[in-house]
Design goal:
Length: 419
């Protein structure tokens, strides 16, 4: 049965949801407050599509909390709300649950890879990408710290290679020879994608298939019957809409839409930073993607630009200069001279994105307690790894098709009462 579906949010989750539902024969309209697509958390991410490792790296590495791992909680959690969220995260990621959580993330990551591959065939277009991710181990202590993560990957029969320092430098010749390196983990099936380029092509395909895209459109007054108001920027008059189903893919803004319906989830909104700069000397730049395992920073090269992302997450509104300095430092440490990061002629872009995190790190995907309201949101900082897969999972649920995805693991009901 063909349904009329509104998708709220035009980032990676929203655009892939619209594309999947159109392919299933539904009528779709997409709404976003920004003037263009992917201008929120999807704008300046690393673009890593890492079905194996990165989908669960925060959970299997140095500690339960991003930026954690020490005796003290990370700075963003040093308040009552942050400590309460960390306690729930610790319960969700206790040893007896960790395998199941990793399996859910791994399944979504594999589904993401399948859907991106399928979209490329449908789009008949090449998108910039680079195959393989190299995880750099600065010391034997860091190697020991990531051992639990490697054990999860091996249990899932993920293809990886443990390298010594010499082999790592052969694989990535531009690595700074003066930086100590204990070895690396090569993940050849993971890859980096020019995400905005891909989403631009996907938007064109959505319009070609009959989908409607409403940009600069603020959604409000969402009701359980699938009704809402949409106000275009510059207009004083709101337009009423009603759909058979409404899918909220609005990231951290989902709480604003859902709270009036009495729905809330244990989400932590954190800002994640990135720095992007032109490649000055290609010989000094990475071939693809590397991850500094100690600093939790991903460096990617896409065409003639380099990007460093992640590091310490921040409370929205806090000063990010220290995080940006760390990203500069990590880029210059591993690839000195590859980009001009300082001075009057530097063409550096910095970016902060607000991401909603669930305690177990998996997104909220599925029907809410209101039958017409669905979710595909809260992907944390791993929207590119989990988003396209969760969109296929959601489309299967709406269309009532069999799915092999982690339905229960991602269900919005898994945290109990939402009111």
């Amino acid at each position: 049965m063909s349904l009329s579906v509104a998708v709220i949010g035009a980032g990676v989750a929203g655009l892939t949801t619209a594309w999947e539902l159109l392919n299933d024969g539904h009528r779709v309209e997409l709404f976003d407050t920004n003037s263009g697509i992917a201008e929120g958390a999807s704008f300046a991410s690393s673009g890593c599509v890492a079905p194996a490792a990165l989908a669960a790296w925060d959970w299997t590495g140095h500690g339960l909390a991003p930026g954690g791992g020490g005796m003290l909680p990370p700075p963003w959690a040093r308040n009552l709300a942050g400590m309460a969220w960390l306690r729930q995260r610790k319960r969700q990621l206790a040893t007896e649950h960790l395998n199941a959580v990793f399996d859910g993330a791994h399944a979504l990551g594999q589904l993401t890879e399948e859907r991106i591959t399928a979209s490329m065939k449908q789009l008949h277009h090449e998108v910039e990408s680079a195959q393989g991710v190299l995880l750099l181990l600065n010391s034997d202590e860091v190697r020991k710290g990531i051992r639990p993560g490697l054990d999860h990957l091996k249990r899932a029969e993920v293809r990886l290679f443990e390298m010594d320092a010499g082999s790592a430098r052969t694989a990535e010749p531009a690595l700074n020879a003066d930086v100590p390196l204990a070895g690396a983990i090569a993940l050849p099936t993971d890859f980096v994608l020019n995400g905005r380029q891909w989403l631009a092509l996907l938007k064109t395909e959505i319009v070609r298939m009959g989908g409607l895209v409403h940009l600069r459109s603020q959604v409000s007054q969402l009701t359980s019957e699938g009704r809402f108001q949409a106000t275009t920027t510059g207009s004083q008059q709101a337009q009423a809409h009603q759909f058979d189903a409404v899918v909220v893919c609005a990231g951290h803004d989902a709480a604003r839409l859902l709270k009036p319906l009495g729905m809330a989830w244990p989400l932590m909104v954190l800002n994640h930073c990135s720095v992007s700069a032109p490649v000055r000397d290609p010989l000094n730049a990475p071939n693809g993607a590397v991850i500094d395992a100690q600093q939790r920073v991903t460096i990617t090269r896409m065409g003639q630009r380099m990007r460093a992302s992640a590091g310490e997450p921040l409370i929205p509104g806090s000063n990010a200069q220290a995080v940006f300095r760390r990203l500069y430092q990590v880029m210059e440490t591993w690839f000195p001279g590859a980009s001009q990061l300082h001075g009057a002629h530097a063409l550096v872009q910095t970016w902060q994105a607000s991401c909603a995190h669930t305690p177990d790190g998996l997104p909220l995907v599925g029907r809410t307690s209101h039958p017409r309201i669905w979710l595909n949101t809260a992907h944390g900082s791993r929207g590119w790894t989990l988003g396209p897969g969760s969109s296929r999972l959601l489309a299967d649920l709406i269309t009532r098709r069999p799915t092999s995805g982690p339905v229960e693991r991602c269900s919005p009901q898994r945290f109990g009462r939402t009111t």
